[in-house]
Amino acid sequence: MQDQKDKKSFTSEGINEDWFIYATKHSDSIPEILLELEKETHQKVLHPRMMSGRLQGRFLSLLSNLVKAKTIVEIGTYTGYSTLCLAEGLTDNGKIHTIDRNEELVSIQERFFKKSKFYTKIKRHLGKALELISSIDGPYDLVFIDADKENYDLYFEAVLPKMKKGGLIISDNVMWSGKVLCEINNTLDKKTLALKKFNKKLMMDYRVQTTLLPLRDGLTLSRVL
Question: Which tens digits make up the pLDDT trace of 165-204?
C-alpha cells in the first residue's frame, strides 16, 4: 500500500507532485486568463500536457522580465499559454513572434491573445519555423524552443546568429519524460535520440553557457556568449 501511495505522489516526469503544488502556491499568482486558457485546453484540445505547466509558466514570465526582452521568438505556440507568459516581460515597445504550423489551433490562440492586454505585442506566424525565422528581424533577446524535437538543433542554429549577446535560448522538454536517461541508444525512438544529442551538444558548445533544469519535463537555459 505504501508503494502505491508513493507512486501516486509523483508526476509522469518522476517529480514529486506535492513539491510542484507547494512551489506553485508559493510563487506569483497565476493570471486569470491563463487559468481560463488552461481549462479550455484540457477540455477541447488533444494532448493538453503539451501546454506549459503553471510553475513553468511563472518561471518563463520571470526570465522574460529579467531579460527585459524587446524581441522574443517562440518556436511552437500550441494554444498560446507560454506565449502569454513570455509576453509579461516584454518592454513597452517589445514584440513576441510566435510560430506554429497547426492551423487547427489558430482560433483558440487568437481568441485568447485578443483577450490579453498584450495583444498588440503578439505577432503570430503560421508555417514552418525554419522558413520563417529568416524574416523575423533580430537581434533576439529571448528564444523559446518548444516544437518538434528532431529539429531542435536546427532551430538552435537558425536563431543563434540573430541572438543578442547575453540573450537567452530556452529549450523545453529536454528530459523527455526521463527517456534521455537511457544509455542503450539502439532501443530509443528518433525524438529521444535527437534530444540526447542536442543536450550533449549544448553542454559542450563554447558559444553558450548552459544549465539544464529538471523543471517539469526538463528546461535548458543557454546564455549566448
Answer: 999 999 999 999 889 998 887 778 999 999 999 999 999 9
Distance of CA 150 to the CA centre of its chain: 15
Residue whose C-alpha cell reads 487547427 in the numeric block = 104
Instruction: State CA 100 to chain mean position distance.
Output: 13
Angle (CA) 115-132-37 rounded to 5° is 25
91 within 8 A of 151, measured Cβ to Cβ? no
Nearest residue to 175 via CA among 155, 153, 151, 192: 192
The answer, yes or no, to whether the previous bond of 139 is cis (omega within 30 of 0) is yes
Confidence class for position 50, pLDDT limits 50, 70, 90: confident
H or E element: which one contains 81?
A: helix 81-87
Backbone angles phi, psi at 29, to 5 degrees: -65, 150
